[in-house]
Amino acid sequence: MGGEATDGIRRIGMVVGLRDEAEAAYRRLHADDEPGVRDLLARHHIRNFSIFVQRLPDGRLYEFAYYEYVGSDLEADLAALGAEPRNRAWLAACDPMQRPLPGADSWTVMERIYFQP
Amino acid sequence: MGGEATDGIRRIGMVVGLRDEAEAAYRRLHADDEPGVRDLLARHHIRNFSIFVQRLPDGRLYEFAYYEYVGSDLEADLAALGAEPRNRAWLAACDPMQRPLPGADSWTVMERIYFQP
C-alpha cells in the first residue's frame, strides 16, 4: 500500500453524495463568510480542510473532502467533536443534504494509495 | 463561492475513473518505493500530493487527487511538466489505466466550495 507520510500529519480523504435540491443551501452554509464549525475543527486539530463538488457520470453530485489531522489521537478528537452541541446542530443541518454511500451514515473515508510530500 | 485561501497556496482537487483490470498495476506504480515522477512534481512546485481510491455506487472505481501548488504560475508549470519526456512516458503508462469523465482527456479538476485553514 502507498500513501504513508512520515511527518506525523494524517491526511484524510472522504466522499459523500450531495442532493441536487440541497446544493445551493449547502454551498451557502459553507461559504467563506459563514463561521459554521470552523473553530471546533481547529480546536480538535483538524486543519487545511477543503471540500470539492463534482457531478459524476451517474448524473449525481458528489462531494470530496480533504483534511489534515495534526493532533495525537484522531479517534478521540472525532468523538469529542461529535459530542459538541454546535457540531451536532451543524450535522443535523448538513446530513439531510447529503446522500451517504450504501452502508454509510455520512462521509466515507477513502483509501489513500499515493503520497508525495 | 467558497474555498478561497489567503496564503498564496493553490489547492487542487481532481477526479478520474480507474479501470478495475488496471487497479493492481496502478497501485504498484504509485507505491511509496516507486520514484515515478516525484522529482518532477517537486521541481514544478507541486507538493503535498495525495491520491485516494473509492468504489462508488455506480459500481466503478474512482481516484481522487489533492495537491498544493506553491509556485507563481500554475499553468506554465503544468505545461513545462507536460513537456518533460519522463512525465510523458509516465502518463503513457498511467492514462490507459484510467477512465476520464465524459469530455475529459485525463483528470477533471473539481470546484472547491469550502476551505478552512
First and last CA, distance of chain A: 16 Å
Residue windows where pLDDT falls under 50 for at least 5 positions of chain A: none
Structural class of chain A: alpha+beta
Radius of gyration of chain A: 15 Å
Key features of this structure:
117 residues, five-stranded antiparallel β-sheet, 32% strand, homodimer, Alpha-Beta Plaits, alpha+beta
General description of the model:
The structure is a homodimer of 117-residue chains. The longest helix of chain A is centred in the last third of the chain and has 10 residues. With 117 residues, chain A is of the alpha+beta class. In chain A, strands 1, 2, 3, 4 and 5 form a five-stranded antiparallel β-sheet that branches. The mean pLDDT of chain A is 95. Helices cover 28% and strands 32% of the residues of chain A. In chain A, strand 2 and strand 3 form a beta hairpin. Chain A is built from four helices and six strands. Chain A has a single domain, classed as Alpha-Beta Plaits (2-Layer Sandwich). At the A-B interface, strand 1, helix 2, strand 2, strand 3 and strand 6 of A face strand 1, helix 2, strand 2, strand 3 and strand 6 of B. Strand 2 of chain A pairs antiparallel with strand 6 of chain B, so a sheet runs across the interface.
Secondary structure topology:
The structure is a homodimer of 117-residue chains.
Chain A: E1 10-18, H1 23-29, H2 38-43, E2 46-55, E3 61-69, H3 74-83, H4 85-94, E4 98-99, E5 108-109, E6 111-116
Antiparallel strand pairs in A: 1-3, 1-4, 1-5, 2-3
